[in-house]
Amino acid sequence: MASVFSAKYFHDEEAAFAAVESIVWPKGPTCPKCGAVDRINRLAGQHTKPSKKHPEGKPVIGLWKCYHCRSKFTVRVGTVFEASHVPLTLWLQAAHLMCSSKKGISSNQLGRILGVQLNTAWFMSHRLREAMRDGTLPPLGGANKVVEADETYVGGKEKNKHARKRAHAGRGPVTKEAVVSLIERDGRVRSMHLPEVNAKTLRPILKAQIDKRTYLMTDDATVYRRIGEDFAGHGTVRHSMDEYVRGGGFQHTNTIENFFSILKRGITGTFHHVSQQHLHRYLAEFDFRHNERAKLGVDDAQRTARALGGIVGKRLTYRQSPNEEHSEHGF
Description:
The chain has two domains: about 5-130, no CATH class; about 145-275, Nucleotidyltransferase, domain 5 (2-Layer Sandwich), CATH 3.30.420. By secondary structure, the chain is of the alpha+beta class. It has helices at about 15-25, 90-100, 105-115, 120-130, 200-210, 255-270, 280-290, 300-310, and strands spanning about 40, 65, 70-75, 145-155, 175-185, 190-195, 215-220, 235, 245, 250.
C-alpha cells in the first residue's frame, strides 16, 4: 500500500498548482482583479528576473493572464498562499498533516517534517488555521434538535508556576482564558474565546448562534438558568452533585465534554502553550476537524480539500499575526 505522500501533488509543483486550481476554480480560472471568467489564458515558458542564484531566472509555474484587465496572476493570489515563497507542494503537505492529526501538530514538528525553519512552519500553520475558519455561521440546532453548551478554561495551573509568576487572585480559573463551545448532537461545533463567562457575554452569543426552536442542554451553572428561557426547552445535569446523565440517557453534556477532552489534549499535549491573541485560531482548527470528522464520512484527503477550499479571501500577513514570540511551545 502506497503512502498518502506518494501522490504527485505532494512533490511536483505543477501537479500541486493543478490540484489547488481544481479546488479554488472548479469551473475554470477566475481573475482575482476584475472577476472575469473568460478570455483568460495560461502563460507558458515564463521566468522571473535573473539573479545571482538564478542567472536565467526561475520558471514561473501556474501563471495566467486576464485579457480584460491585462493582469497576470496565479491561483495563490487572493488566498492565504499569496506572497509566500514556500513551494505549493509543502503547503499541501502541511495542510494534510494538520487535517489528519486529530490533536494537531506543533510548529516544531511541522518544521522538522517539511525541512523549514520554525518561524516559517509557525506562520504556515496559522495561515492554514485561518483557512479552516468557518465564515458562514448559520444557527445551530432547530426543531427537535439538541445543542449542548458549556465552558472550559485554557491555561496552566497556578501551582505549577514559579512563585513570582503566580497570580494571587483567589480561587477559580485564575489567569486562564475562557472558551465557550456550542455543539449540536450528531452535528457541528462552534467555539469562542471570551474575556469572561457571565450572562452578559453569553446571552447574545447563544441567541445569535442557536435556533430558538432548539432544546438547550447545559450543566447546572447559574449563568444558564435565565438564558435557557429563550429556547424551546432547557435541560440540565447537576455536575455539582456528581450527576452526569439522567432522563434515560437523554439529558447529558457528554458530547461537548468529549470535544473538550480532545481540545485539552491538543493544547496540553501537542502545543503545550497557546497565546491569548491566537487562541481563536486554534479553536477554529479543532472545530474544523470535528465538523469534518470520519464519523460523518469525511476521510483525511477530503478534509484537506475542504480546508483548502477556505483559503480564498483570507490572506494573513505578519502584521496581522504578530510573531514577537511564538504562540506555541510544542516539541
